[in-house]
Amino acid sequence: MKPSLDENQPLFLQIAQIILNEIVEGHIKEGEQLPSENELSSFYTINRATVRKGLQTLVDDAFIYKQRGIGMFVSEGAYQKIVEERQKQFRQNYITPLLEEGARLGMDVQKIIQLIEKEAQS
User: Fold this and answer.
1) H runs (alpha helix) in 28-108
2) What pLDDT, on a 0 to 100 scale, did the predictor assign at position 28?
3) Domain range spanning residue 63?
4) How confident is the prediction for the chain on average, in pLDDT?
């Protein structure tokens, strides 16, 4: 099932994010070839230049690489790099604010952990 695209976010960034998700979820492995620009543009019914821009952001960040005349491939180490970056974002976006709000409410780390465990069980 293809993910729906959000008109409130640049399409090229969404294409890049979809490919990163595919790598993290193990659907595309390191060293494997990505679908072509034409295939992606047809699949998502968007302009090929938009797809190219999304892919180029991944090349610029070294998640994928181009082989002239052949296509784009997932770089070695891409999975680990994506996971590390996302864990850092997760900590900044969720853990730090959670701990700060807990402290404002007089909760220590153990109390927050208890609440998380309780929520995970429900």
Assistant:
1) 37-44, 48-60, 78-90, 96-104
2) 97
3) 11-76
4) 96
Cβ atoms within 10 Å, residue 51: 25
Asked whether residue 66 is assigned to any structural domain, the reply reads yes
Could you read off the pLDDT of 24-40 as tens digits, one per residue? 999 999 999 999 999 99
Question: Among all chains, which residue has been given the structure tokens 């429900």?
Answer: 122
Give the tokens for residue 112: 């927050």
- Whether residues 49 and 84 fall in one domain: no
**Alpha-carbon distance values, 48 to 15, 43, 53, 57, 77 (Å):** 11, 11, 9, 14, 27
14 phi, psi to nearest 5 deg: -65, -40
Task: State pTM to two decimals.
Answer: 0.85
